[in-house]
Amino acid sequence: MAVTTNLNIRIDKELKERAEEFFADLGLSMTAAFNIFVRQSLKQGRIPFEIIGNADPFYSAANMRALEQSARELREGKTIVKTMDELRAME
Fold first, then answer.
1. What is the DSSP track for the chain?
2. Residues 52, 41 contacting (CB under 8 angstroms)
3. Cβ-contact 30, 20 below 8 angstroms
4. CA 28 – CA 91 distance, rounded (Å)
5. What span, in angstroms and rounded, lies between the C-alpha atoms of 62 and 36?
6. In terms of pTM, does the model score above 0.70?
7. How far apart are the first and last CA of the chain?
8. Alpha-carbon gap, residue 33 to 23, rounded angstroms
9. Residue 25 has pLDDT above 90, yes or no
10. Is 28:37 a contact under the CB 8 Å cutoff?
């Protein structure tokens, strides 16, 4: 039998309660869920899921492609120059 040890972590109370309820629905305790996380992290040599932050949508893949295309067109001289009055007239 493996020798176990205690691990104390701090977590928001509401988050803990929600997690306990979620894992209980899966038939898991918080301890079992955490052990699965740690074992998979070690097995895969990374966090076993993608971590997505609240990144600025300006830097989305689609916007970055559009910006790269615009920069390429600018370098290639594919630009049209208009005054503000000309642009307003186009509305």
1. ------------HHHHHHHHHHHHHTT--HHHHHHHHHHHHHHHTS-SS-------GGGSHHHHHHHHHHHHHHHTT------HHHHHHH-
2. no
3. yes
4. 60
5. 35
6. no
7. 76
8. 7
9. yes
10. no
Count the residues in the chain: 91
Rounded distance between C-alpha atoms, residue 56 and residue 61, angstroms? 11
Q: Decide: 4 and 11 in contact? Cβ < 8 Å.
A: no
Give me 3's structure tokens. Answer: 């020798």
> What is the crossing angle of helices 13-25 and 30-44, to 10°?
90
Per-residue tokens: 16: 């803990």
Q: What digits encode the pLDDT tens for the residues 30-88?
A: 999 999 999 999 999 999 988 777 778 888 888 889 999 999 999 999 988 899 999 99
